[in-house]
Amino acid sequence: METAIEELRALLGRDAISIDPDDLHRHGYSDWSTTNVDTLPTAVVYPTSTLEVSQIAKVCAKYKIPVIPYSGGTSVEGQFTAPVGGFSIDFANMDKILAINDDDLDVVVQPSVPWIELNEHLKPAGLFFPVDPGPGARIGGMVSTSCSGTNAVRYGTMKDWVVNLTVVLADGRIIKTRRRPRKTAAGYNLTGLFVGAEGTLGIVTEVTLRLTVLPQETSVAVVTFPTIRDAAAAASSVMRAGVPVAAMEMMDDVQMGVINKVGSTKRKWKEVPTVFFKFSGTKAGVRDNIETVKAIAKSHMGGDFQFAANQAEQTELWSARKEALWSMLALKGEDEELWSTDVAVPLSRLAEIMEESKKDIGGLGMFASMLGHVGDGNFHSAIFYNKKDPEQVEKVKRVVYKMVDKALEMEGTCTGEHSVGLSKKASLVKELGPETIGVMRELKRALDPHSLMNPGKIFDL
Amino acid sequence: METAIEELRALLGRDAISIDPDDLHRHGYSDWSTTNVDTLPTAVVYPTSTLEVSQIAKVCAKYKIPVIPYSGGTSVEGQFTAPVGGFSIDFANMDKILAINDDDLDVVVQPSVPWIELNEHLKPAGLFFPVDPGPGARIGGMVSTSCSGTNAVRYGTMKDWVVNLTVVLADGRIIKTRRRPRKTAAGYNLTGLFVGAEGTLGIVTEVTLRLTVLPQETSVAVVTFPTIRDAAAAASSVMRAGVPVAAMEMMDDVQMGVINKVGSTKRKWKEVPTVFFKFSGTKAGVRDNIETVKAIAKSHMGGDFQFAANQAEQTELWSARKEALWSMLALKGEDEELWSTDVAVPLSRLAEIMEESKKDIGGLGMFASMLGHVGDGNFHSAIFYNKKDPEQVEKVKRVVYKMVDKALEMEGTCTGEHSVGLSKKASLVKELGPETIGVMRELKRALDPHSLMNPGKIFDL
């Protein structure tokens, strides 16, 4: 390990490698992760180019040292932990937007570009990148966790927006998965394979993303419902009616209370299940969509329709939703940790599983909220618990994995957008069965025979 | 081989295997393919279930016999040829729609379901499956070629619409790539890997497809342009303005002449470059979009705006576009063959490459047309040539591969939607380079070590 560090220092410069304990801790532990491990990375390496990443991979291959990519560090299922040590590759110095091809509707970026900053750069050209996970996320991690967010119901998830990837393989080879066409049917979809592979097949060092045009008109409306079931049923009806909502997000009574308590918005909200709708398109199109949604919501007991009066209020309302997890964290007690996890089910089953999970989570007697990307059949629960109280840990786990099992029973998935990391490995085996996991394992072995690429994540070898 | 056939007859019944010469020819040769080979499959097997496909794979693994999947037989780059013999697996008896989950917006089908028939079944539920390649295509082949069609500009391509796949691997193992959630980030995207793998990694035996809701309102408009360059530039501007056209298709002067000659529609068309626009959404949204497109087209010298007066005329206009290839074939002389191929480039380069290719193709002195999915940067050329005239064959090849090279130079792809088959293997190496092809090869070897799954396609081992 020491020799490897010295070799890398000779190649990349002394400052490119850190063994500072705080740095190691920040790269191996996360406050908002459901799983942390006792080990930390042995070193953190800060490459500045794809070529340097390739050099790192070659040295690591020589000394059989694990390699763990790191960008925003906002993942919640233990994706960047170092269960067997190894080098954390932090892309902090690879944070450039390399090209904005506005007439081609695409952009070339390095892994450490934050999506929020990217959108600020794109705004003058009237363009945006629609995948919107948690505020701190960066493109590298977003690719590797196949993330999504509130815009997914209209625009799809990460896999739909990656044109090509530059990837460094376990042995240091550099490949580019595609050129830059908007559409292609040429050869295996390697892009799609590396998206969501959580860095276990190779290290993403450059990304071309598709872009879309900022809509002419947007509008935000908020509707309350008597129960989660009513809210989820209304969301399913909106989807079934084919209304192209730009987003459709549900927060439960607890989460609405959090917004009030933290004061994220100027309004005081009713603390009942609430759906936030975003509409976008032309003026007339938005008006039509609002009318349809109003009628559907009413038929599901929706009430208290409120519209954002202007752009500022739209932003404020929507940020209340986007910062839900952060608002929760603001209320976290000294000894508390947050368990934030997600599942997804076929649309028609959403109302049932959300209602049931709400009951289970409520029964814990802990502070817990639920929020859902209800147009995708995908929802999150977030529970505060005391990590040092084994009984509490046990109770939370029981409720979470019961929710996962219920989702699987409904032909759903153990994670709609957080990905597997360390926490959902057993659930993934339940979800797909040993034969399908076997195929994943064979692919992994083909590209990473010594299991050096983010080992221990997604499945065990 | 004989022993294998006897074993399969014992397992599946005598009628499940055909060695009838006409049957072999139909499964190894295609009139509208750019590449045919001298060999034919040794037998055609007609399974009735996934389990039977698994039995076939096991027998073939035992005797090292290649396996070539066959559904609609409409591919054009030699995808279902048998360059080293083997068994063609025709899914004719696996043509059932197994479940329509209308509230989940998905459907479960067998490989031999034609997409047109599927949409007829979905219509009463107000749903449709938007991927629309050539009229005869069936779901199995559509998955394996990662096809698309005129709706791609709005709805994306095959890879965006597959929820899960049941796949039989080379050794007979049966896997399911996912359960049935609309969104998931759980494990490797095997679905996305098998989509577009042309049957070289395994045999798709069951498919869950996402569906969408039929739009309230549709409209079709036709606009003429003085040159292909103007038409392509107008299309790029429409994309850049973010108008959500449902489709945007260009046909050149020759293709418009074909429609007139064959009499596909009641109208007589000007034989000049023409763009067909389809609009869909709410009434008001469609009206808005039409106005925007009209203004853009005018600024690019577009004229002669014509709208379909009613639904029947919409269907007629659109079918003129959809049946373009068939219309061409109706004009094919006795000794002639059709070379139909496609490339795709970043949007801003489309006008240039289409203009240049038009010039080259025009210079051949043969009957040739061009048509483009111009919102995707993707276009086709179709050329009649006499296969028995080596000089003609040589000339066509030269023009086609010049077009491909030009597309690659522009960071494009050798195929936007037809996929590689036999004809584009060398182009794929040029496009992605030996390192990236090397990764595809390693994945192939991991899942199909004896290269029995549709061997010889996409790349050479």
Automatic annotation (TrEMBL), chains A, B:
Any one GO molecular-function label of the UniProt entry: D-lactate dehydrogenase (cytochrome) activity
GO cellular component, one term: mitochondrion
Keywords in alphabetical order: FAD, Flavoprotein, Mitochondrion, Oxidoreductase, Transit peptide
Protein's UniProt keywords contain Mitochondrion: yes
Cofactor(s) recorded in Swiss-Prot or TrEMBL: FAD
One Pfam family this sequence matches: FAD_binding_4
Top EC class of this enzyme: oxidoreductase
Domain FAD-binding PCMH-type residues, every copy: 37-214
Cross-referenced Gene3D superfamilies: 3.30.465.10, 3.30.70.2740, Vanillyl-alcohol Oxidase, Chain A, domain 4
Protein EC: 1.1.2.4
Subcellular locations according to the entry: Mitochondrion
Catalytic reaction(s) noted: (R)-lactate + 2 Fe(III)-[cytochrome c] = 2 Fe(II)-[cytochrome c] + pyruvate + 2 H(+)
PROSITE patterns reported in the protein's UniProt record: FAD_PCMH (PS51387)
GO biological process, one term: lactate catabolic process
Domain of life the protein comes from: Eukaryota
Protein family per UniProt: Belongs to the FAD-binding oxidoreductase/transferase type 4 family.
Protein name, UniProt field: D-lactate dehydrogenase (cytochrome)
Organism: Lasiodiplodia theobromae
